[in-house]
Amino acid sequence: LQEKVVTLRVKRYRPGIDKKPFFQDYQVTVRKDTVVLDALNNIKDDMDGTLTYRWSCRMGVCGSCGANVNGVPVLTCATFISKLNSEIVVVEPLSFFPVIRDLAVDMSDFMYKLREVKPYIVRREERPVDAGEFLQKPHELELFKQTSMCINCMLCYSACPVYGMEKDFIGPAALALAYRYQMDSRDEGRDERMEAIVGPEGIWSCHDVGYCSAVCPKGVDPEGAIQTLKAMGARYIIKSILTGGPRRK
Amino acid sequence: MTKKNLPYQQKIPSTWWLANRRYLYYMVREFSGPALAVYSVITLYGLYLEKTSIFRLAQAPWYTPLMSVMLVFAVLHTITWFVAFSTTKLRMSTRVLPRKILFAGLIILWLLASVVLGLFFYR
């Protein structure tokens, strides 16, 4: 395979040493099938062992290796350098998150917010295992299957300027996962979950920029999920007002 | 974690909205909002007036250029709002309505509403 040399311009930050991030250039030999993560691994193995970034599965499943490449949030394991058509490839940490070191960002904020939306099936009463599985029809699964593909890679947060400016905003992935459970026919916690997402930091903070859905590597469409939750949320609020409080089944 | 090892808080440049087409598109949509409001107020005022006064208002030198620009913003705002709204997963029986059909439905409703209102006010 034909090889060529490209410059990988990586944004670096070493806590305790640097006051602010800076760019460092590395000359990397790449082939047609080299992805950005391969190039980073090449640097780490052969040029600079101090370069820090996250990765695990190398096949777009674990969601660990997200970074901004040439200004676009992507999974570095799924981004071929040859397709970038660029002699200089700029690699930066995901936007809006605090940078722990180099390309590794602190995602704790998302973890707290994810907990708020109860991303699991809520049952009013647990059934014994002997009672059998909860059956679901294919069309019921189809309603949320797309959003269940989320791998929590945080590309959508990095693409969301609202999250960048309103830190309390729950954000695209957590709301898409809230939608996933709201639409699940086995779930019985819709009112509790809705209470968590109809607040000012929830669905109403979304301004429909739509870049979250554009960058999602799994085709989840958080924008569509949030728009649908807005319609459901409006109905929920009206019903709550008419019935004098949060609706309970 | 000691103080000097704290994570770096990334800053958002004031030019963030120029970073890609989606952001720019979003900002244009947001800024078309006030233009839409001005357009609506002038249009409602025009509808309130007698027909002869409307013609007098329309002959003002500022009217046609201003209203043309405002109309462009109003149409832009409406269409981009429909694009955003059509991402809603509207359930019809056991299926979700395709995005393109929802968008087309909104455009048809908009055109119908415009014709009905036009006939009502200018008959």
Structural class of chain B: mainly alpha
Oligomer: heterodimer
Q: What is the string of helix and strand elements of chain A?
A: EEHEEEEEHHHHHHHH
Order of helices and strands of chain B: HHHEEH
Strand order of the largest sheet of chain A: 2-1-5-3-4
* Cα separation of the termini of chain A: 63 Å
In brief:
The complex is a heterodimer of chains A (249) and B (123). By secondary structure, chain A is of the alpha+beta class.
Itemize the secondary structure elements and their pairings.
The complex is a heterodimer of chains A (249) and B (123).
Chain A (H helix, E strand, L loop, with lengths): L3 E9 L9 E9 L5 H11 L19 E4 L2 E4 L12 E5 L6 E3 L2 E2 L2 H9 L21 H5 L12 H5 L1 H5 L6 H11 L7 H8 L13 H5 L6 H22 L6
Parallel strand pairs in A: 1-5
Antiparallel strand pairs in A: 1-2, 3-4, 3-5, 6-7
Chain B lengths: L20 H28 L2 H8 L4 H23 L5 E2 L2 E2 L2 H24 L1
Antiparallel strand pairs in B: 1-2
Polypeptide structure, described:
The complex is a heterodimer of chains A (249) and B (123). In chain A, helix 6 runs antiparallel to helix 7 (190-197) and helix 6 (172-182) packs across helix 9. Chain A has 249 residues and is α+β, with helices and mostly antiparallel strands. In chain A, the strands form two sheets. In chain A, strands 2-1-5-3-4 form a five-stranded mixed beta sheet. The longest helix of chain A is centred in the last third of the chain and has 22 residues, at 222-243. Chain A contains nine helices and seven strands. With 123 residues, chain B is mainly alpha-helical. Chain B has helices at residues 21-48, 51-58, 63-85, 99-122, and strands at 91-92, 95-96. Chain B has a two-stranded antiparallel sheet with strand order 1-2. In chain B, strand 1 and strand 2 (95-96) form a beta hairpin. The longest helix of chain B has 28 residues, at 21-48. Chain B is flat and about 75 Å long. The interface between A and B is medium-sized, with 37 and 28 residues.
